[in-house]
UniProtKB/TrEMBL annotation:
Residues 6-243 form the ABC transporter domain. It comes from Idiomarina aquatica. Pfam families: ABC_tran. PROSITE patterns: ABC_TRANSPORTER_1, ABC_TRANSPORTER_2. Keywords: ATP-binding, Nucleotide-binding, Transport. This is Phospholipid/cholesterol/gamma-HCH transport system ATP-binding protein. The keyword Nucleotide-binding applies. Coiled coil: none annotated. InterPro entries: AAA+_ATPase, ABC_transporter-like_ATP-bd, ABC_transporter-like_CS, P-loop_NTPase. SMART domains: AAA.
Amino acid sequence: MSDIAIAVRNLRNQFGQHVVHEGLDLDVYRGEVLTVVGGSGSGKSVLMRSILGLTQPTAGSIQIYGEDVLRLSAAERQRVDRNTGVLFQKGALFSSLNVRENIALPLREHLGMNANDAGDIASLKLALVGLDAQTAETMPQSLSGGMIKRVALARALALDPDILFLDEPTAGLDPIGAGEFDSLLQTLQQALGLTVFLVTHDLDSIYQVSDRVAVLSQKKVLVVDTLDKVAAYQDRWVQAYFHGPRGRAVSNQQMRPEHGN
Ligand SMILES: Nc1ncnc2c1ncn2[C@@H]1O[C@H](COP(=O)(O)OP(=O)(O)OP(=O)(O)O)[C@@H](O)[C@H]1O
């Protein structure tokens, strides 16, 4: 089997006159955590939505495990979608469903499971993300920001996906909550062998969890490599991002030995 989970080639996304991506190439390797960074409006979310089939690109190809997903029928696409979990910004839980029902939803919708069986699996997923059983009956409105992210992660993992997509998962969390979420993500990624596509602005997360970092700039992937190589890349935005005051503070605190730094 190929080592490439996702291959994006010559991607173009255009909204009216506004070209967001042009000639964008990117490979995501099986079992890695790839972090996608870039300035506001550089097209990180549009890239993620394109891979997920939520935005139809203007041109180019996207393969997931070798399948050209832009050319699949709706039914074939559903089969691919069952293998991907997504955590959207803000968690996006359904406010009318309790925690267990939220997590159970993909099992009911995609696999047609009954409420009891789906609820049992949801309880296991809840434990997986470190929440106790009582949380299952709670409504989303009563959860803290950190708990919402954990429940959304449990829901993203409901179908036992190989690939996990996360859009700004630590946005809105305090530094301690964000650090805990990153540790949980790392533990689960390693335990479950997940391929992770992570969009984030959070420098602490980038240093803690990335195997490789892709920088989106000038409508394409400007550089994709290990963190130390990307941080050394000679580009104004990259240098300001990784070596500005915030970047320096994080790199001094968090450079992890296993990343060779
Ligand atoms: N459906 C759409 N219609 C028109 N323009 C869009 C649409 N979706 C995204 N865009 C535009 O595409 C550009 C890239 O948006 P995107 O949300 O991907 O940026 P981003 O890198 O994720 O930014 P941020 O870091 O601020 O979240 C923006 O200028 C946005 O306004």
